């Protein structure tokens, strides 16, 4: 076993990496225990003051405990259990009787609940714990204003005696160590308790300091079986004392005599148990008749005798200690000290205890342990009990707080934080809406992240505070519009009448082709007439050359002029077409395709101007589309048509209403007096009041 003051073996292993750089920096390392399964036997260390941990080694040193609670240890990187017999892999455990590998038959469990109703305030006996008892557990069944108390049969108070309430802690009594607990958490409902492993070497009495209705006291302890004698008990047993809390009786002892050993609780009228109590004087010590007296030592020379030369140092500096006289052998005449062999040892005085330093010690603040943090993560509160105490006669007593006024009182409450709570983190921005128009949905990634930065289960975060990871999005109504290209630059005829063309497509305000009827019946024209001047010809069908393709790319048309002419000498006279009707007329139009267009700019018609005068604006939508009318980004940005332009920049001319005139010459006074709000003045000074109203509405509009 390692000494209690030694460092934890995992701390030692992690600290060995303090002088080794990690990613170019030096850190101080401490064990990180929040791991599961096979990771328990890895050396996982956390950088002190940082929110990350590192696996410094795949395996800890053999013999390192797997965790802080169990008895298993790591061997070759695997967690192995240890039995109570200290064999690796053994499944033996200590039974309730304290025997390794036992079957719980070597002892008896005594348990019960004290539920009696008490009326008087003060100390009331609950149960007695016999000599040799082990695994003692006295627990209040729920929190109350009552207190448990413990005293020995000899009358010595162990816990909460003489109306002095001790703070929770460890107290020695009856040959064992009792742990006194009094939960002080605000939210706790647990009562106080005494716990001890035992065995006890004397009978102990448990009391309750009654102040409010009894919530019930559960008691339990273990005593050796009828045929089992505890070696530890025999070591403390004196002649005439009971064994395991019972007196041995001669074979002829009657049951009436046995009843003399049963004690009845005078406070409750209930039997305190079947544990006989040895009454003082029941077994007087006497010397057997056949005892031979011991030989007396021969008398020594009376030239020397015992003399008190001083006293031992007082056991305490205050609060009533004890000291003893010191006797040395001296010459009766010269009083010089001589070896003790010169004096008769049988005449040496027995040193008797003497009280010393009777003045009380200064009062002090007795600081209790902090309670558990009110919250498992994040900022919480914890409490502790602060009592003013004073030591006297080797006992620590609780006194009035004014006696500690010379000292600063420690805080009874404090903030605490076991760890930073896991929190919700938004890991991504919202995605695009699932539809280009109308109502759709969009999503984002929301995760629960621990204080170490790891993604954990959502249950570890407050579900009430979880940000939404999906929501509806409204992209507006799915409008439909005609999209047009610009007119082609070339006329289909080099001379005479021809046409120019453009492309027309019906689309919603997102890229998706619709049937032509989707935009209504007002489809813009795809052709417009053009004329490059008259042409000359001869009498016959005369076909001119094909014009350039109406579209520089994609599908288009070519035109040519076909006329009826009469050829004259050096000239051609144009005749009416019917003159050539008996001849087959050549085609005047054909389709053409020069090359794929790639992407081109399309736009809608201009909207209505936003104002009828004084400058408004109108807008249109512009899209870049490929040959198959799909959205494209390949159009030249410098050729993109304007999407907004000014319109109706002329000044507004008010309409003159012949029926709205001023009937008086001084209507300006009516305006200045702000009388236009009245019907009479509004009619009598109609023109002036109207002008003022128009100016005010214009001013408000500009604001």
From TrEMBL:
The gene is Thsd4. Its main location: secreted. It holds the Pfam family PLAC. Residues 272-305 are annotated as: Disordered. One of its GO terms (molecular function) is metalloendopeptidase activity. Keywords: Disulfide bond, Extracellular matrix, Repeat, Secreted, Signal. PROSITE patterns: PLAC, TSP1. This is THSD4 protein. GO terms for cellular component: extracellular matrix. GO terms for biological process: extracellular matrix organization; proteolysis. SUPFAM superfamilies: TSP-1 type 1 repeat (SSF82895). It is found in: Secreted, Extracellular space, Extracellular matrix. InterPro entries: ADAMTS/ADAMTS-like, ADAMTS_ADAMTS-like, ADAMTS_CR_3, ADAMTS_spacer1, PLAC, TSP1_rpt, TSP1_rpt_sf. Residues 656-693 form the PLAC domain.
